[in-house]
Amino acid sequence: GQDAVNVAKNFSDSLNISGIILTRIDGDGRGGAALSMRAITGCPIKFIGNGEGMDSIEPFHPERIANRILGMGDVVSLVEKAKAAMDTKEAEKLARKVKKGKGFDLNDMATQLTQMRKMGGMDGLMGMLPGVSKVKKQLAQVNVDDRSIAHLQAIISSMTPDERANPKLLNGSRKRRIANGSGTSVQEINRLLKQFKQMNLMMKRVGKLGEKGLARQGLQGLMPPMQ
After folding, report:
1. Can you state the angle between helices 172-182 and 186-217, rounded to 10 degrees?
2. Which residues pair with 22 in a beta bridge?
3. Do 104 and 206 share a domain, yes or no?
4. What are φ and ψ of residue 133, in 5° steps?
């Protein structure tokens, strides 16, 4: 946001810079700071990223940022990140399960959470999807933010293989054991199971909609109804 613009201006006034690297664009109104920095410094944006690590940095494409600012998403970057983060065999295995309407288990959820972190976290992914503004309230119900992903992964890692494959086994005593093992609470485990059910429902809807239905209804067709 404005802080990034001020930092870029100070550097430009003090040094002979030839380009700008803009990080944490997920926290900046869809990347609007890129326009301000270019206008104030006269220097081109060279690289951008949702995080500040080297694996989060990517070449800057003006047309993609323009799409984000206009609320049209950035599907090309999303696909590129997905290719880099996904295990092809695991993705094909999950796709077959979804297509058959079987949903997925907590092993699949753990894999998805790992891939989500590699792709820039929830905020980064949402910024690349077109039409997200129409379903913000439904997305808020899912309640998976970047800060909670590590806790969710710790909880799932503390479960036995049978529990991950069949979450219905998780009674009160099992939940207390998992909470102690993961350094979390039973309440957090219950929240994870609620999120798992919502994600599982979304996956089943993908299978029911099929490619044509998904293309027609978009992200809104996957969201749970407002309560």
Report:
1. 90
2. 48
3. yes
4. -60, -25
Residue 167 corresponds to which tokens in the numbers above? 């979450």
Pair of tokens at residue 14:
């003090």
Name 76's Cβ contacts closer than 8 Å, sequence gap at least 6. 61, 64
Number of structural domains found in the chain: 2
Q: Model confidence over 20-75: pLDDT tens digits? A: 887 766 554 545 666 777 778 888 888 877 666 676 677 877 766 666 655 554 55
Tokens of 50: 């949702």
Cα–Cα distance, 44 to 17 (Å, whole number): 10
Please tell me the distance from the alpha carbon of residue 133 to that of residue 131, in angstroms, as a whole number: 5
Q: What is the CA radius of gyration of the chain?
A: 20
Give residue-wise pLDDT tens across range 69-89.
Answer: 555 545 555 555 555 555 667
Alpha-carbon distance of 188 to 31, in angstroms, equals: 33
Nearest to 123 by CA among 145, 143, 152, 151: 145
Q: Is residue 83 part of a domain?
A: no
The answer to whether the beta carbons of residues 74 and 127 sit under 8 Å apart is yes
190: how many CB neighbours lie within 10 A of its CB? Answer: 12
Total number of residues shown for the chain: 227
Interval 175-193: pLDDT, tens: 999 999 999 999 999 999 9
User: Does the pLDDT value for residue 222 go beyond 90?
Assistant: no
In this structure, what CATH number is given to the domain that contains residue 95? Answer: 1.10.260.30
State both tokens at 120.
């820039």
| Residue-range definition of the domain harbouring residue 110 | 88-227
Of 110, 67, 103, residue with least CA distance to 87: 110
